[in-house]
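Team,

Forwarding the record for the chain on the shared tracking sheet. I've put the sequence and predicted structure together so nobody has to dig through attachments.
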Amino acid sequence: MKKIFLFISALLICVSCFSFNTKALTIPKSDVYKEGIYRINASGKYYATISLFSKDKMASVVVIDSQNRVRMYKIFFPDVINDSLNIGYIESTDTIIVIGPGELAINYYTQES
């Protein structure tokens, strides 16, 4: 009985000494975005593609990094079929600005996808 008590006590001490800090990664929501400024509120680095969702209206997109530098700018025209932009990685400090009456579909994914 004494050996079991010592074993359990040693086990509890070891478990309490080695705490693990886990953080769940959340992928930003892939959705259709209207005109506005969107701050990426997710941890980690993700990849994204942008395409025009509305078929009769144009829209522009601007991607700004954490140091307020324009990484990408593109105008999507409704008469261009299947036009998309692979913007590469997006970090939690980046900002995406959608300009114009059209709507843009932004699809986020991880590299493993």
